[in-house]
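Q: Give me the 3D complex with zinc ion.
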Amino acid sequence: MLFIGLLVYLPLGENAGPAGASSGGALSPFSPGLREHPGGKGASSPASIRPGPHPRIAIVVDDLGYEPARDAAWLQFPEKITFAVIPFGPSSRKIAKSAHERGFSVLLHVPMEPDGQVNDGTSGFRLRRGMSGAEMEELFSRMLQDVPFAVGASNHMGSAFTADPEAMSLYTAMLKEKGLFLLDSVTTGRSVAVASALRAGIPAAKRDLFLDVDPDPEVMRRRWAEALSLAKEKGFAVLLCHGRADTLQVIQRFLPDLDAEGIRAVTLAELLSGSG
Ligand SMILES: [Zn+2]
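A: Here is the predicted complex, encoded as structure tokens.
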């Protein structure tokens, strides 16, 4: 059952600083910039998903749905991964369906109100602070219809929204009603997403690291090594990356490390349910 493995996370203001990335270049239509994706290492959780017999890593690929050819390349990924799909893109529906058929987890990657202004193509359909429950429900349901087979939801940007207890309380109540779990992308150290999810009684996880805020392969290698260490240290790690072609190429070169280190790649649903 999904409720077995709850990840308790107390936001302590981590990740609020700059990521140290050398390039904030727009590598995808959904590169919201460093402020919304502070990369780097997340603080380790004070409590965790129940450890399994072997360390596990959940790799979540963000911002899919808008570049059909590029997105489809991720379907060939040789290990289990999770697809976070932004709705209303030319390939949102198709990539969600294909990922599900391939045995991957699908997340609805929900555009949420950032801090300040970010122009990335989602401005017409972001969840915003101050929305009523009904407004949120209407927009979210349309998004969910466009990303079939979603078993959970993660935030695309959302530094303002995820830090707002009232908005998050409405949001997590809605996730509960729809039977979805929550992944906090942790775009701000002030996020109350996981705390709110746990209060609502839904399974929740937070990303530990971002692989590719800096597209330099050497930096990605270091982040990858950190993710593997973390997985061994606490039993699991949640690694986010973007659905870019360069990331796909680089991460595939790292995969032999998993066998070598005895770490199993699992979908986020498997991680949260303790299976896999
Ligand atoms: Zn995103």
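A quick observation: Residues 55-273 form a domain with the TIM Barrel fold (CATH 3.20.20.370).
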